[in-house]
Structures are given as structure tokens and as C-alpha cells.
Specification:
Layout lengths: L7 E10 L16 E10 L6 H11 L29 H7 L1
Antiparallel strand pairs: 1-2
């Protein structure tokens, strides 16, 4: 089942890890500090899609341990605040979508 996402933020960052003995690292060596360029993906989604999105994340992610956070939007009016209005450049649309 495809999940449509309307609002996405892609943020470049650098992760630091030190794989321990019991792991099978996708990158880096056991016992050595490893730096990896990553992209943080942030989006807003409906609560009823949460389990589907987490399942897709776990299936697509190459690492043994997936780091993710879920934050609830505590809007008083549940029909507003899910998304934003704005303009995107053509470059953004061509490279991301």
C-alpha cells in the first residue's frame, strides 16, 4: 500500500556511532567510532498511518538499530494544522520528487 506524504523536510546531518561486539555494522568496524553523513526525514502524518509508516521505515532502513522519534501535534482543532501552504522552487520538485 502506498502512503502519500504531503509535507517533508530533508535535513543533512552527521551521525556518530561505535558498533559494539554483538553487532553486525552496516558501515564502520566493531569497536571503532564511525562518522556517517545522513539525511533526517521529517514529516507530518495522520495518526492512523503511524504503524504503516514505522513498518515501511524498518523495512527500508539498512541499519540494525533504527533511530526515530514520534511527536504528537496537540492541536485544539483536529481539522487544521496538518500541513502548510507555501511555494516550492522547480529545482526542489525535480530533485526530490
Amino acid at each position: 500500500m502506498a502512503i502519500t506524504i504531503n509535507v517533508v523536510s530533508l535535513l543533512p546531518e552527521q551521525a556518530v556511532s561505535e558498533p559494539v561486539k554483538m553487532t553486525n555494522p552496516f558501515r564502520g568496524q566493531k569497536g571503532e567510532i564511525h562518522f556517517e553523513n545522513e539525511t533526517r526525514f521529517e514529516t507530518i502524518l495522520f495518526y492512523h498511518l503511524k504503524d504503516q509508516v514505522i513498518k515501511a521505515l524498518l523495512e527500508a532502513h539498512p541499519y540494525e538499530e533504527v533511530a526515530y522519534d514520534l511527536f504528537s501535534l496537540e492541536n485544539k482543532n483536529s481539522v487544521t494544522g496538518l500541513g502548510c501552504i507555501g511555494e516550492m522552487t522547480d529545482l526542489f520538485l525535480k530533485t526530490i520528487f
